[in-house]
Amino acid sequence: MAKERVLAKVEADLRRGHVHPAMQRLASLTAAYPDDGDLRARRAALYRQVGNLAEAGRWGFLSEDVTAEEVAAFERSYPRVWSRLLVLKLHADPTDRLGPTAGARFARLVEQANEEGPAPVDWTEVGPRPQAPGSWRDEVPCLLAAVLGLLGLALAGVGLVTVLRWAL
Length: 168
Hints:
- There is one protein chain.
- The protein is mainly alpha-helical.
- The protein has two domains: 2-132, Serine Threonine Protein Phosphatase 5, Tetratricopeptide repeat (Alpha Horseshoe); 138-167.
- 67% of the residues lie in helices and 5% in strands.
- The chain has eight helices and two strands, in the order H-H-H-H-H-H-H-E-E-H.
- It has a two-stranded antiparallel ribbon.
- Helix 1 packs antiparallel against helix 2 (19-32), helix 4 (53-60) packs across helix 5 (68-77) and helix 6 (81-87) packs across helix 7 (100-116).
């Protein structure tokens, strides 16, 4: 219900020519419903209307009606692939909800992110993140800290015993 009420306010803002409040309301809605394709399309259309091609490309990236010019502007604004993937503000992998063109575009982005690194894309509860490394070398700092901690405890124990013997 709240979503429909906010969308009605967006429409009222646009009828009055108040684009900025409409943008703010849509931004709030897309933050609350990050995986809603309709909200993303509305936001892209609004940015398209005001001539902001980079943002129209960003919010329309997962839709079938985004233009090549908008996607190119989005890519120029975020030259690093991981930056582009993260700025889409997704919480879940949208692959199964995309049309053929958007699906291919998104698959290419994920493939490029896997190649760019630092690690392959892993979908978490908060969206895409670099996959946790699995090499034993990644565990060495933790192991070293544990050994040093145990060594410190052992030295503290020896010191305590020495102080007690001296005092008695």
